[in-house]
Amino acid sequence: MGTSELIVAGLLPQISGALHVSVSSAGMLITVFAVGMMVGAPAMSMATLRLPRRTAMIAALLVFAAGHHVGALSTGLGLALVGRFAAALGNGTFWTVGAVVATAAAGPAASTRAMGVMVGGTTLAHIVGVPLGTAAGQLAGRQGPFWVLAALALAAAVVIARRLPADAGGTDSSIRA
After folding, report:
1. Which of 21, 57, 150, 177 could disulfide-pair with 65, CB 3.0 to 4.6 Å?
2. What stretches of the chain show up as alpha helix (H) in DSSP?
3. Rounded-to-10 torsion of CA 160, 88, 112, 116
4. What is the pLDDT of residue 42?
């Protein structure tokens, strides 16, 4: 999911050409993702507060994948922006719920380490995933990386559905927690 945040930067020329907009206008795809994370993710996290955490994580991954499908299929900037915003909602929701699940699964003694692993994964996604996605986009077209991100999110949703216990992360459902 970390790759999604910055993958657009390396694909701006291809995206701007495909959407028939300037490179700077295509750059709004990065901005709208950040806005979706900043504004939408907390709201979505509150909206999913009463759901089982496994369900919330799967829903977040499905929204993330759908956003990337929309982005890959879009032929205009408006629809591409909608896709990016949806992907950001899914990304932010997954992060907030995933952090609760990871720290609860690790227990008090290892909760900091669990968060370190999550942050380390995002850092690795930026270091490895963004350049690979940019190269793939230059070779296969601007849609390729978005299809791959969507497919990976769907695969992760299947893994979570099969492997994560229904009560993962506890059952406390309070915004104050």
Report:
1. 150
2. 2-19, 23-26, 28-35, 41-47, 53-73, 77-106, 111-124, 130-140, 144-163
3. 90
4. 86
Number of domains comprising the chain: 1
Question: Is residue 47 in some structural domain?
Answer: yes
Which domain does 71 fall in, by range?
Answer: 2-163
Enter the pTM of the model: 0.90
- In angstroms, the CA 148 to CA 133 distance is 9
Beta-carbon contacts of residue 130 (< 8 Å; ≥ 6 apart):
3, 6, 7, 9, 10
- Within-domain flag for 172: no
- Check residue 59 and give its pLDDT: 95
The tokens of 95 are what? Answer: 């992060």
Q: Walk along the chain (177 residues) in steps of 10 and give the mean pLDDT of each run.
A: 90 96 97 93 84 93 98 97 97 90 89 90 90 92 95 97 80 56
CB 157 within 8 A of CB 61: yes
Domain for residue 173, yes or no?
Answer: no
Q: Residue 143 falls within a domain, yes or no?
A: yes
Report how far residue 18's alpha carbon sits from residue 74's, in angstroms, rounded to the nearest whole number. 9
Gap between the Cα atoms of 54 and 130, Å rounded: 28
pLDDT for residue 25:
98
